[in-house]
Amino acid sequence: MSSTGEPSIPRRDLGLPTLSAASFVVLAIALSLFQLYISGVRPIGLFYERGFHLALVQVLAFLLFPTKRRGFPKKSSEEPSGRGAMAWAVDTVLISGSILAALYLTLNLDAIVSRAGAWSGTDVFVGVVAVVTLLEASRRALGWPISFIAACFIGYGYAGPFLPGVLRHGGYSTGRLVGQLYLGQEGIYGIPLGVAASFVFIFILFGALLEVTGAGQFFIDLAYAATGRQRGGPAKAAVLASAAMGSVSGSAIANVVTSGAFTIPLMKKVGYTPEEAGGIEAAASTGGQILPPIMGAGAFLIAEYTGLPYLDVVKAGLIPAILYMGTVFVFVHLVAVKKNLKGLPASELPRFGPTLVKGWHFLLALVVLMTALLMDFSVARVGFLSCLAVAALAALRAVWDRILGGNQVGSRLEEAARRPLVSWLGSGVVRIADGFVIAGRNALPVSLACAVAGIIVGIVGLTGLGLKFSSLMLSLSQGNLFLALMLLLLASLVLGMGLPVTASYVVLIVLAGPVLINDFGLPVLIAHLLVFWYSQDSNVTPPVCLAAYAAAGIAESDPMRTGLQAWKYAKGLYLIPLLMVVHPELALGGPLPVVLGKAVMAMVALAAFAAALEGQALRRLTTGGRIVLLAGAGCAFFPSFLVGGLGALFVIAFTLWDARKPAPNSAPSRPGQ
C-alpha cells in the first residue's frame, strides 16, 4: 500500500542482482530514516530537504529500472536480470548526474542566490544535467508519456516566437529556463516536490509499516466477515476492504494488487464475470484514493496550494468520498440482484469477533493519526507519530502474543512461541526494514511525478500559459459553468493518458484553477476538490485506466472491457463533483440538518442513477422506468434544495410502487448457486 498509485514490491521481490538489490535496500532504508528525522526530530532547509530527497529517489529509480529494462518486476520467481558493462556505464553516469545536481545546488546555495539571475556557465550545465536525469528517471519509472509531456513544455519555452496566436511568447534561452526550473523555487524544487518530500513520504511509510505488520489482511478479513454472506458478498467486501485500506494508503493500484488478489477470485466464484470482478475492484480501489484521512498526495497539495489546514481538506473530502463508495456499493448490490448471485457460506468466511480481536491494535494506529490531526499538529509530525504508533503497537502485540498466547494476524502462535528470542527479535527488525524498503520503492512514482510536475508548473509560470489557458477556457465555454466543467473533464481525460493522478492534478489546477475561482466564482476548496476528483479518471477511464489494467491482470480478463466496467462503476467520479458545485455544503459544511438532508438527497440520486444504468432496482426496470429514475436523479443537480428533495422523494415513491407490480421473468441462478 502506498500513496503512489503503484504496486508495493517487498524488498525480497526486487528482481535485481545482488549488488543492485543490496544498494537499493541500503539507500531505501537511508531515505526512510532521513524522512523520519526531518518529520519528527529536526526540519532542515527546503533546498537541502528536497535536494537530498530527489537525489535518493532518482538513484533508487536507476537501480530498480536498469538500462534496457522497462516496467515493474513481474514475479518474484523470475531470475534477476543483470546489467552489461555498457548499461552499467550509462546508469553510473545518470546516478552521478543525479547526485551532482543535488550537491551542487545545496553546497553553492548562497553563491547562487547572490548571483540573482546572472547564472554562470557551470550553473547552466548542472541545471541541464538535473533536468535530463529527472526526465530519464521518470521515463523509466512511470513510462515515456510523462517525460514526453514535460519535454514538450520545455520546447514550448524555447519556441514561443514561432507559435501562432494566443500561444506566442517572446521565447527564453537555456540559461533563463535553467534558472526557472533548477535554480529557483518555482520549478523542480517547487511546491509539488516539497509536498512529496515533507508530507507524502511519511504517510507512504505509515502505509508500508501497516502492510508489513498485517493490517492489509486484517482489513480484508474484517470486510469478508461483515459482508461475505450477503448477495454478491465478495464484491461488497472488496468495496469495504478497499475503503479501509485506501483510507490509510491513498493508492488505487496498490489497493488493487493487495486486496484484489483475494477479492477478485471470490467474486468470479460467486458469479461475477471476470470483467465485472476486475472493474468492481478498480472502481472500489479508486475510492480509497479519495477517502480520508489519507487521500493520496493530492490532498497534501490541496492544503499547500490553498493554505488551509490539512484537517479542513480531510473534512471537506469525507462526505463526497462516502457518497462515492456508497455508489459503488449500490452498483455491486444491483448487479448481484439482477444476476441472482449469492454470498459465500459461513464456513468459508472469517468470524467478525475473532478477527477484530486479532487486529484491533491496527485501529488504534488510526486513532493516533486522527487524534494528532485534531490536536493541530503539523502534517509531518502527524505522520511521524503515526509511524511510531504502528511500530510500537505491533511490537507490544507481538510481546503479548509470545507471553500470553495471543495470535496476531498473519502469524502462527506455535511458531512464535517456540522461536528463539534472538530470532524472534530479528524477525521484527526485518519486518520494519521491509517497511522502509517498501516505502522507498513506493515513493518513486509520486516523488518523480511531483518533480516533473514542477517542470510543467515552472514553464506555465514563466510563459504565462496559465492565463492564456484560462482565457481560452472562458472563451470556449462562453461563460457557462457547465460547459467549462465539461472542458475541464476533457482536459483531465487527455492529461490522464500521460500523467499520473498527482501530476495531472497539479497541471490542471495551475491551468484551470484561476478561471474556476476568479471568473466562475467557485469556492477555492471546491475548485481544488473538483480538479482532484477529475484527475482520478486515469485509473478507470479507457483507453488509459491503470487501476483497471492491474485488476484485469488478476482477473485474467480483457483490459479494455475491464476498463469499461470500471468506468461504469466509478460514475460517481463525474457526478459527485457536480453535486459539490451545486450543493457546496456537501464539502464545506453548514447547518447539520442541511448537510445531512443534502447528503441523503445526493445518495438517493446517485442510487437512482446506478439503478437506471443497470436496469435494476427492487425489480427489473423497463425503459420507461429507467427514464423516470434518471429524471428524478437529475433533480439533485438543481441548486434548489426543494427541487432536489422532491426529486429524491419521487424516486423513492416510484421505486416502491414499481416493486409492487408483477415481476417479469427473472434471471435464473448462476450454476452452482
Written as H for each helix and E for each strand, in order along the chain, the element string is: HHHHHHHHHHHHHHHHHHHHHHHHHHHHH
Low-confidence parts, pLDDT < 50 over ≥5 residues? 1-12, 69-81, 406-414, 666-673
Envelope shape: globular
Q: Which class best fits the helix and strand makeup?
A: mainly alpha
Calculate Rg over CA atoms: 25 Å
Report the end-to-end length measured between terminal Cα atoms.
34 Å
Number of helical regions: 29
What is the typical, i.e. mean, pLDDT?
A: 84
Q: In percent, how helical is the residue content? A: over 70%
Indicate the proportion of strand residues.
under 5%
The main β sheet shows up as: none
